[in-house]
Amino acid sequence: MTTGFFNGIAPAKYVGDGEGTEFDYRHYNPDEMVMGKRMEDHLRFAVAYWHSFAWEGGDPFGGATFERPWHPQDNQSRAKLKADVAFEMFDIIGQPYYCWHDADVRPEGDTFAQSLRNFEEIIDYFGEKMSSRNIKLLWGTANMFSHRRWMSGASTNPDPDVFAYSAATVKTCMDATQKLGGENYVLWGGREGYETLLNTDMGRELDHMGRFLNMVVEYKHKIGFKGAILVEPKPQEPSKHQYDYDAATCYGFLQKYGLENEVKLNLEQGHAILAGHSFEHEIATAAALGVFGSIDMNRNDYQSGWDTDQFPNNVPEVALAYYHILKAGGFTTGGTNFDAKLRRQSLDAADLIASHTGAMDICARGLKAAAAMIEDGGLENALQERYSGWDDPAAKAMLESDFDSIFDKVNAGEIAPAPRSGKQERLENIVNRFV
């Protein structure tokens, strides 16, 4: 018995160049081997419960545009209907994972205890549905930014009662993630920042945030959670300045509080752009620092100055992201979560299916292009050639010497730099052969 929300849309299938519906896959073939691994196992797609099912279509300038059968999301029967529809969509598109926040899946109660009872009941309902399907939880997380109690932050809040409420909330979400076999737990500090330094003790807030994250890690080990703890960087919005600004900022934070070997990063394309970076920059930075974990795949509208969370549709951008992911060894516990939402005018249930299957095809094309670039070797060969001087024993010895000895060689004329081309345009031409 189905809800009928998707009006009998058949499960999407891989058709390649053959005939199919608009929802079928032209590029995403889960069983296709790419660099010795199944495509599904490379990409590890996940659906974001919040944007796909909890979001009502509002934006900063207007209210809800979606009219779903589970709106308003204020009781358990509607929460279960929402879950029924969600798992029907999972059956249609066939992705291996999904993700949630606590507030996405259950209605808010009058007390913490009531909210927890609602949450636990829905988690059990999810577990029943997962038991009969080949779908897993990529990660769970807590929404500690929407409700007014979080207006001044969660772990960084000046009120210790809010810190305590935050700790209790994350404990319940970690328990639920563990119960459902989740492979990661994510923390995104949407309000962990400040609006003005006039009322902010930044040092105290950072210390509290560091202690909170240490508590998360301590609890992970206490309950035997085998997944990764992930922090998601974002520079701004909703806070004017968020403490988890970008990958490099997060790594500095992790080092300061002794967490660089315990916590990795969940990187989002849209957040990278807001920080003034490319997505591949953030991935390469995290990989170089040893903290790459997972990604939220979306895009921003480059004519808007805010986080629009649109589905990916740019193969060259996606290809460069996966190029650096593959260079880093690929995902382990992480994956490709579509933290993306329909446009406010895309009202139909069919739009929800098409957005995901289209995005999965885009990512599949990007992955295959990235693999082809790696197998071609042109980019890597050029990179090795550019740094080949450092393979010389004299160059290696220089790194172990000091300024005085280096000065003597340069001053004696033994070393005279001769600038060489960076060949950027030629390297861009190599990329364009594949995308």
Automatic annotation (TrEMBL):
State if Cytoplasm is listed as a keyword. yes
Has UniProt tagged this entry with the keyword Isomerase? yes
* Catalytic residue positions: 101, 104
What are the required cofactors?
Mg(2+)
Provide this UniProt record's keywords sorted from A to Z: Carbohydrate metabolism, Cytoplasm, Isomerase, Magnesium, Metal-binding, Xylose metabolism
Which of the seven top EC classes does this enzyme belong to?
isomerase
According to the record, how does the cofactor bind? Binds 2 magnesium ions per subunit.
Q: Where in the cell is it found?
A: Cytoplasm
| GO annotation, cellular component aspect | cytoplasm
Residue positions annotated to bind Mg(2+) 2 are 268, 271, 307, 309
Reactions performed catalytically = alpha-D-xylose = alpha-D-xylulofuranose
Residues bound to Mg(2+) 1: 232, 268, 296, 339
SUPFAM superfamilies associated with the record = Xylose isomerase-like
Tell me, in one coarse class, where this protein mainly resides: cytoplasm
For this protein, the record's HAMAP family field holds: Xylose_isom_A
| Oligomer and partners | Homotetramer.
Query: Family, per the entry?
Result: Belongs to the xylose isomerase family.
Q: Under what name is this protein listed?
A: Xylose isomerase
Q: Which organism is it from?
A: Neptunicoccus cionae
Gene it is expressed from = xylA
